């Protein structure tokens, strides 16, 4: 029997990101929004040739296919949310380590310039979406994606992500998206997770 997609456990308790992201926001975001994407996906793929396949395989099989947009959106959002939760850690922020720090300085001029560019990109994302630090070819870049989309260019791999859908921050920051993003960078980003992603091969380059 094909195994359904499961909701991964949070890497930390729901209140661990407080006060930057409140337990109330995490409970709503993870327990309602993220769970709903997983539940919807399992319902949509039941009885199809996609049942029992991984999120990455489902994303690759449904991307850019309007007839399968519902499946893609739920699969991509499930993947994006898991990646977002793992991009955060209760005692994060500070500065990126080692090679990652050097690559950020080379790409953006300084860590401070990276922070400014990342927050600016978040502000410029019209409507719902995501902001990513990605490695592509021999450099790093900040990219934004709308709605459920994620970085999928060949050779491109996400290092970290910040969710800029309103449900990610509105209870805590109202419409102050930049404050949310900048505070997350300052206090919650898991640079060790980003550094580990920099060291591995892309896993969605085929998508």
Description:
With 207 residues, the protein is mostly helical. The protein has two domains: 23-87, Fe,Mn superoxide dismutase (SOD) domain (Helix Hairpins), CATH 1.10.287; 98-199, 3-Layer(bab) Sandwich (minor pseudopilin epsh fold), CATH 3.55.40. The chain is 48% helix and 12% strand. The protein is built from eight helices and three strands, in the order H-H-H-H-H-E-E-E-H-H-H. The radius of gyration is 17 Å and the shape is globular. The relative contact order is 0.16. The model is unreliable at 203-207 (pLDDT under 50).
Q: Which CATH architecture of the largest domain?
A: 3-Layer(bab) Sandwich
Order of helices and strands: HHHHHEEEHHH
The total domain count is 2
As for the CATH topology of the largest domain, it is minor pseudopilin epsh fold
Count every beta strand, where a strand is a DSSP E run of 2 or more residues: 3
Indicate the low-confidence ranges by residue numbers. 203-207
CATH superfamily of the largest domain: Iron/manganese superoxide dismutase, C-terminal domain
Cross-sheet strand order for the largest sheet: 2-1-3
> What percentage of the residues does DSSP assign to strands (E)?
5-15%
Provide the structure class: mainly alpha
Largest sheet: 3 strands, antiparallel
